[in-house]
Design brief:
This protein has 380 residues and is an alpha+beta fold. The protein has three domains: 7-114, Acyl-CoA dehydrogenase/oxidase, N-terminal domain (Butyryl-Coa Dehydrogenase, subunit A, domain 1, Orthogonal Bundle), CATH 1.10.540.10; 120-228, Butyryl-CoA Dehydrogenase, subunit A, domain 2 (Beta Barrel), CATH 2.40.110.10; 231-378, Butyryl-CoA Dehydrogenase, subunit A, domain 3 (Up-down Bundle). The protein has eleven helices and ten strands. It has helices at residues 7-24, 28-34, 39-47, 66-79, 81-100, 103-114, 230-266, 278-306, 312-338, 349-357, 366-379, and strands at 120-123, 139-143, 146-157, 164-170, 180-186, 192-197, 208-219, 223-224, 268-269, 272-273. The strands form three sheets. The chain has a four-stranded mixed sheet with strand order 1-4-5-8. The protein has a four-stranded antiparallel sheet with strand order 2-3-7-6, with helices on one face. Strands 9-10 form a two-stranded antiparallel ribbon. A hairpin with a 2-residue loop joins strand 2 (139-143) and strand 3 (146-157). Helix 7 (230-266) packs antiparallel against helix 10 and helix 8 runs antiparallel to helix 9 (312-338). The chain is globular. The structure holds coenzyme a persulfide (COS). Coenzyme a persulfide (COS) binds next to helix 7 and helix 11.
């Protein structure tokens, strides 16, 4: 399908496709097996400018949008959904600074993040505040010209490797979500600790960690926006970042589909390649259709987010919901087409199925996406 991308967007997509094929694909299985973070590839991505796409030009970025970030994430995820996340999760960590940062905050933090010299991470989730993000407990208490942060954030993507963290904490417990504030926290701040590194089913090349604040001292000038705006900053961030999860899911689905199609053309049973069987043809036809539907919605949602259209939170949630459900279905069917071989780690396709699952869960479970969409329908 023609998605009417501009020449620049096609050039960016093709560049990332080449990097994914030449640099990521050959090492995807190794990083998955070892569960280690791909620092060597972060260097490659940084040299290609991939961390800078959504950063405004005046702060060292390419000044592009969510659509270009989606193209980057989709191409990298075709080769490895876990490795792709180093770029997408850093963008997630940067969004609060791009959305709500002052000129001074942006000047201080964005150039190094755009250059990939440092990685960012976004800290919202807590042990007892997952889908119900508003029930977070991490406290931010003002003392002079600093805040003291205390609490624990969990499942933080890039947690063990980032140096700049955007953190949402409770500054006024009496005011519910209106009593939360957002902060930029550096790894070097006193009282900041990286806790347990998670051992995951999929996206094993990405770092997922606990982040602990023990009287962590954060200068007042590192607060993002006004006191009380933290939850709103988080929600606006998720509106921008959810198409990135959709792009990751789409890339994973496309990667698994490409493998299944090739396999179906070469695997001979009953005297013919299995693609000659209608049972396999119909599966492939459904997979291809679902992938194009997910891509069409994602690109249009990303364009809506970039244009700051009314209702963009709703289409952003829709793109994540559809693409991640498609990724789970397509990767499961890809394993089915490979049969017994698909279940074995010697073949690459089972990894896509493991990597797909998280896209239905993080940056809001698909049940939360439905809630966001339904509330938008209810309230017009
Ligand atoms: N943009 C701006 N403001 C928003 C917003 C958005 N997209 N969505 C909500 N808000 C505002 C609301 O307008 C409301 O403001 P007021 O108090 O001024 O009226 C405030 O935020 C609270 O919103 P709401 O009442 O909808 O909050 P709830 O506690 O009911 O929860 C959900 C909202 C469930 C949508 C939220 O908790 C959520 O997104 N949960 C999932 C979290 C998630 O995705 N976690 C993944 C980890 S981060 S990688």
């Amino acid at each position: 399908m023609d998605y009417f991308l501009t020449e620049d967007q096609i050039a960016l997509r093709d560049l990332v496709r080449q990097i994914a094929d030449e640099k990521v694909r050959p090492v995807a299985a190794k990083y998955d097996r070892e569960g280690t973070f791909p620092w060597d590839l972060v260097k490659v991505f940084a040299e290609a400018g991939l961390f800078s796409s959504v950063v405004p030009e005046e702060y060292g970025g390419m000044g592009l949008g969510v659509l270009e970030l989606a193209l980057i994430t989709e191409e990298l995820s075709k080769a490895c959904g876990g490795i792709a996340l180093s770029v997408a999760a850093s963008a997630l960590g940067m969004f609060p600074i791009i959305i709500s940062g002052t000129d001074e905050q942006r000047k201080k933090y964005l150039p190094d993040l755009a250059a990939g010299k440092k990685l960012a991470a976004f800290c919202l989730t807590e042990p007892s505040a997952g889908s119900d993000a508003g029930s977070m407990k991490t406290r931010a208490v003002k003392k002079g010209d600093e805040y003291l942060l205390n609490g624990t954030k969990v499942f933080i993507t890039n947690g063990g490797v980032a140096e700049v963290f955007t953190v949402i904490a409770v500054s006024d417990p009496e005011r519910g979500t209106r009593g939360t504030s957002a902060f930029i926290v550096e790894k070097s701040f006193p009282g900041f600790k990286v806790g347990k590194e998670e051992d995951k089913m999929g996206i094993r090349a990405s770092s997922t960690s606990e982040i602990i604040f023990e009287d962590c001292r954060v200068p007042e000038k590192n607060r993002l926006g006004r006191e009380g705006e933290g939850f709103m900053v988080a929600m606006k961030t998720l509106d921008k970042s959810r198409p990135g999860v959709a792009a990751q899911a789409l890339g994973i689905a496309q990667g698994a589909f490409d493998l299944a199609l090739d396999y179906a053309k070469t695997r001979v049973q009953f005297g013919h390649p299995i693609i000659s069987l209608q049972a396999i043809q119909f599966m492939l036809a459904d997979m291809a259709t679902q992938i194009e539907a997910a891509r069409a919605l994602l690109y249009q949602a990303a364009r809506n987010v970039d244009a700051d259209c009314k209702g963009m939170g709703q289409v952003s949630a829709m793109s994540k919901l559809l693409a991640s459900d498609v990724a789970m279905k397509v990767t499961t069917d890809a394993v089915q087409i490979f049969g017994g071989y698909g279940y074995m780690r010697d073949y690459p396709v089972e990894k896509y199925m493991r990597d797909a699952k998280i896209t239905q869960i993080y940056e809001g479970t698909n049940q939360i996406q439905r809630l966001v969409i339904a509330r938008s329908l209810l309230h017009g």
